[in-house]
Description:
This protein is α+β, with helices and mostly antiparallel strands.
Amino acid sequence: MFGEYTPLMKPGLLQSRLRRGRARIDPEMGLEKFCPHCQEFWPQDTLFWTISRSEPDGLQCWCRACQLEYKNARRNAA
Length: 78
């Protein structure tokens, strides 16, 4: 994979995400995950996603850039 660490997904979860369009396999980047906030695909590794033990694939549902944007917006609003 491209980044630092890629958690392994169960085969059923991977097939479900590929079928629903929430993941794709890019020839150059490998497995990519869809971020519902920015509506873009990013490589599924810890360079682009934060680790989360509560998610089935081990990664947060929003990409790091969207999480940072949200965090900064909340900080500036306060």
